[in-house]
Amino acid sequence: MTALGFAWRSLVRQPARAALGILGVAAVGALLFDMLMLSRGLIVSMQDLLDRGGWDVRVSAGDLPASGLRVSNALQTADAIATLPSVQAALVIRGASAEIDRASGMPLKAAFQGVATRSTDPAGSRLRAPWTILRGRDADAPDEVVIDERIASESRIEPGNAITMRASCVADLEALPATRLMVVGVAEFPFQTTNESTVGGTLDALKAACGGNVGQEADLILVTSKGDADGTAAAIRAQHPEVRAATNSQVVGRLQQTGFTYFRQISSVLTTVTVSFAVLLITVLLTVSVNQRLGEIAALRALGFSRMRVVKDVLSESALIVGIGGLLSLPLGLLLASGLDRILKGMPGIPVALHFFVFETGALGVHVALLVATAIIAALYPMRIVSRLPIAATLRDEVIG
Amino acid sequence: MKLATLIRLMAVAGWLWPSAAAAQETTPPVILVSRQLAESEGLEVGSVIRLATDASGTRAREFRIGGIYEPTPDPARLGQVPRSVRLHLPELLEMTRPVGVPPGAEYIASVNVALVDPNDAPQFAKDVNARLPGVLARPSGEAAGSAGPFRVLERFHLAIAVVTIVAATVFLLALTIMLVDERRETVGVLRLIGLPVRRILAQILLEGLMVAGAGAVFGLVLAVLSEQLINQFFQWRYDTALVFVRVTRDVALTCVSIAVPLGASATVVASWALLRRGGLRLARR
Q1: Residue B76 gets which letter from DSSP?
Q2: A365 with A230, same domain?
Q3: In terms of domains, do A19 and A167 share one?
Q4: A61 CB near a chain B CB, below 8 Å?
Q5: To 10 degrees, the CA torsion angle through B261, B267, B270, B275?
Q6: Per the structure, how many domains does chain A have?
Q7: What is the pTM of this model?
Q8: Residues of chain B contacting A343 with CB distance shorter than 8 Å
Q9: CA–CA distance from A5 to each of A23, A368, B13 (Å)?
Q10: Of A332, B102, B136, B232, which one is least surrounded by beta carbons within 10 A?
């Protein structure tokens, strides 16, 4: 019988303790797997979110897009950027806060995104708004808008309906007249946060909603390069030293140094604690188990089992407990991750499409490596006990005791 | 209503460099510089620096550093090194006032008001909102919206704590089952000499309580020791005075109130199956 088969029989002989040991490893393993997914989850998710729209350079006034600072003379800046040979298209985005009147109840608060495309390239001239149309069509005219699913369901508005909106482009306390706009589509906004509703339209529609009180500023200019994002960002910085132009990877890199660092740190701390906890507990389990079977092991040695063979038995037992527990930890970890992700997405200002826990094969590889290391380290002390076991003395003690 | 108005404004320096002009006809106004900015730029108390609101240095003014301050830790700005200066409001407005805007017509972001009786805050805010259209007054408790993320983090940490407790409980049960099994013969002999099950169970419970209590105390000591280490690490990592981990009396009590009953219960649950067997069967080898 192989060492693994022998270890399996040892576990099956004590089903309760084996099951509890495996369950414990599964729970700890699930937490470990989650922490590994958390360590890079936000970065991977944010990179995916930024890349999804097809805009590979972001031009803003602050170090990070959405920092609150606005690009001045935005349309002229976008016009100039669009003339760069490496640029396919530039999209100016201006945000405003708005209230949508409802038939009954309080007005619905929403963010209004107004966009305008600038391009000298035929391929880039068609408006590609940073949202995805789910129903209806995109808003093209100054009196047309698209709304998100939340507004559609809460206000029971569908494409073809009109809405009455009061938008504030300069200050939240502006008292502007209401504007009627036609809803032509329902869209998904990639950076829409969990606690806000969004309306999208052209920059002209935003101007109409704000009564023309918009100014020359924009929150962001998105740029699609013809392939060389880094070169395009450098060209924009050279052309406009007053703005910050960054590729999607650079934006993620900046976020990595600021907003996301907490989760990387907490993930590192919890990974260390979890692995230490698992090593400690499996060591104790195996040690107690081996101590209870010293007579049995001594008898096996007396029957001819080699020292290496009993050591292998203990290692195999550890590998089985950690291996089965580790396998169970994967579905358990994914389930736990979805719950923890829901909790963390309760933070204000987090885009709905952003995830804190993202599955990556790299994370799975590290998880497996850590579990293998745990199985080996946890078995070291009990292996030492069985390898140094005095056969005759142990058998005598067992008989006398 | 008597009130004192405190206005604190923080201006982030867009441009900053030590002045070459040592001689000044008039003494430059005094400003405070954050410790992080002072360290990164090598600034000292008494240095004269020039501040401007844009990179080209338009309308730059000279200021004398009157002190270096430690910025109030802001959890919402974790990871961002606070390179900031504090200057008197009139000087800030003088620097930032757009061309054509007369003095006194500038915008300011907020005014902090300290009331004689803080309990008047809701009524005071209501009065201000009624009398000054265009101004939004809120009691500071309501204005502290930045606490939201930390409540979410608290829930996240609680969820992780629950998973850890579940894992620990499972391991604990496995361990106690093994330990109880190890003492099967002793328990069998106690049963055979006439000790009732309840008496043995009480002994096991007491033993479980003592072990769990000792474990809880050890855990608390470990937590207090690691509290210092974790705080020192994160304070160094983020260059902040924020406190990340704090083992409070409530936290310690919660831990003990979970750990001790859990440990004792695990011992009793693991022993129960054993005690249901007959004394002879237990004592038999």
Answers
A1: G
A2: no
A3: no
A4: no
A5: -120
A6: 2
A7: 0.73
A8: 152, 155-156, 159
A9: 21, 22, 70
A10: B102
The reply to whether A303 falls in a domain is yes
Segment (H or E) for B211: helix B197-238
* Domain with A310 in it: 3-49+260-400
Lowest-pLDDT range, A129-138, A244-253, A380-389, B22-31? B22-31
Looking at the complex, report in whole angstroms how far the Cα of residue A19 sits from the nearest Cα belonging to chain B: 8
Chain segment B177-236, per-residue pLDDT in tens:
877 777 777 888 888 888 888 888 888 888 888 988 998 999 999 999 889 888 888 888
Who among A270, A289, A347 is closest to B149 (CB)? A347
**Helix or strand holding residue A299 (H, E):** helix A294-303
Model pLDDT for residues A148-185, shown as the tens digit of each residue = 988 888 888 889 988 888 887 765 555 567 888 899 99
A115 and A148 co-located in one domain: yes
- Report residue A123's pLDDT band, with 50, 70 and 90 as the boundaries: low
Sign of CA dihedral A117, A255, A71, A202: positive
d(CA A329, CA A141): 53
Residue A175, pLDDT score: 57
pLDDT at B284: 61
Nearest to B63 by CA among B21, B89, B30, B92: B30
Would you say residue A55 lies in a domain?
no
pLDDT tens column, A323-347:
999 999 999 999 999 999 998 888 8
Residue A67 is assigned to a structural domain of this protein:
no
Three-class secondary structure assignment of A137-187: CCCCCCCEEEECHHHHHHHCCCCCCEEEEEEECCCCCCCCCCEEEEEEEEE
For A145, counting Cβ atoms within 10 Å of its Cβ (0-12 exposed, 13-18 middle, 19+ buried), the class is: buried
Mean pLDDT rounded to a whole number for chain B: 79
DSSP run (H or E) holding A330: helix A307-344
pLDDT at B13: 38
Chain B nearest-CA residue for A398: B285
Per the listing, tokens 């291996």 go with A323
Whether A339 and B145 lie within 8 Å, measured CB to CB: no
Q: Which of A179, A210, A242 is the last residue of a domain?
A: A242
Best of B178, B218, B239 to disrupt the A interface (most A CBs within 10 Å) is: B178
State residue B283's pLDDT score: 62
Whether residue B67 lies within 8 A of chain A, CB to CB, comes out as: no
pLDDT at B280: 65
Task: For residue B198, give the H/E element and its range.
Answer: helix B197-238
CB within 8 Å: B156 and A277: no
Does residue B6 carry a pLDDT above 60?
A: no
Nearest CB neighbour to B171, from listed A173, A281, A347: A281
Q: Is residue A143 part of a domain?
A: yes
**Distance between CA atoms of residues B179 and B190, nearest Å:** 17
CB contact, 8 Å: A292 with chain B?
yes
* DSSP letters spanning A195-245: T--EEEEEHHHHHHHTTTTT-S-BSEEEEEESS-HHHHHHHHHHH-TTSEE
